[in-house]
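Continuing from the previous page of notes. For each protein in this section, the sequence appears first, followed by its structure tokens. Read the first protein now.
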Amino acid sequence: MKIISWNVNGIRAVYKKGLTEWISKESPDILCLQETKANFDQFPSELTTLENYQISHSSAVKKGYSGVSTFSREKILDTKKFEKDVYDCEGRVLIHELKDFFLLNCYFPNGSRDHSRVPYKMQFCDDILIKINQLEKKKPVIITGDFNTAHTEIDLANPKTNHKTTGFLPLERAWMDSFVSHGWVDIFRHLNPGKTGAYTWWSNMPGVRDRNVGWRIDYFFVSPKLVKKIKRADILPMVKGSDHCPVLLEL
């Protein structure tokens, strides 16, 4: 099974840059998209009619903002949103139950340049940890998406100049430490412990992506009991169309 996660920074924009052709070529069994920035009725019909894919979506009340969408060829037994309006009104989470595991497609909040949304982000982080710890009592869990936080200094190109930038604040990184201390495995880092230059997001400033001055903020975390099932965890930086690139998990 191949699962791909990608913050597309607008599904209509990335559609115009060849999303349908890329899906056909990559052929994921499950595709988790974040920051779709559209209601489902605004999705291009070529995407909503993709053969063999079941589509789930959660959009924000605010137009052109946030939103997550999951395309699956695997049978999904049940799909829920977070079921807290403070998050569902921003289209932040889809929780899928499959035969052997739960899969969460998440778009974690950005703390905002002035840090005004850091409290909201941290509450979301705490609540998502409670949720997946509860789910794991029933069956293993995979959680993927844009976490909007680089965990350690190896996860961004310029750690020294970003300690006061949301996405690398001590508070945010401490939560990531806590997350891992609960047993959740950052599977890419588990398989590539010392790999540098492995980033998933780059600023739109000219030349930044070409020079690979990036951050790794898109993840797959898995239950410990799934680690032995993982065949591959990868980052796909050559895939363009968004300021993020896709991340991949093969089981």
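Done with the first. The second protein uses the same format. Note its length before scrolling.
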Amino acid sequence: MDRRPRLAVWKFASCDGCQLSLLDCEDELLAVAEALEIASFPEASSALAAGPYDLSLVEGSITTAHDAERIREVRRQSKHLVTIGACATAGGIQALRNFGATDEMLAAVYPSPQYIETLATSTPIAAHVTVDFELHGCPINKTQLLEVVSAFLAGRRPAIAAHSVCIECKRRGTACVMVQGVPCLGPVTHAGCGALCPAYRRGCYGCYGPMEAPNLPALAQRWQALGATAQRFEQALRSFNAAARGFRMD
């Protein structure tokens, strides 16, 4: 009998929400467990098996020198490495530190900052090792996660759409909120949420990170036409995906 492919799930600087998306698969998780050997998943079990692993799912960003070394070891043990969520793919909300003075932040938050060992930046996993696929979202879409796992089991590229949230709005029949005067990041944001916020007449917050080839200058002009300042637009981009290259105005 051929052995089942071995899966490992890893956590770096993050809130654990994307790992929980895998546990939230419920009935589907049983099928995953039958197709894979879940060799290492500390969020779900204390039973941990050593590598190598066929597929590693990595949540979280790199914020310490220790984690920078640890991710290199994870890469060495993994045949395929997939990053899941905004922290792993774009530095996460903790990447807001990249735009300020880390020493000043530490002094403001901790009574004894001299005991804190941290890097000046929060960076995505791809800034440190080769990544085979990035799954965006804060948190990730569990259906998309199952597609990614299934694709790597089958030896094919995951079928994850690269279009914007605007396409999802059209598919569910949601009227464009910007036409109604509400600033929205939907035109530059990767699909995956089902256009949840626009369905409630709220602008998209950019939870799924930048779509393929986002046109930020054009959207900035539209926001300004709606009365939003350039500073407000830049602040809107600096949220869950603060370090995402496609959301940077420089």
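What the second structure shows: The beta strands are 6-11, 37-40, 53-59, 78-84, 133-135. The first helix runs from residue 17 to 23. We return to this in next week's lecture.
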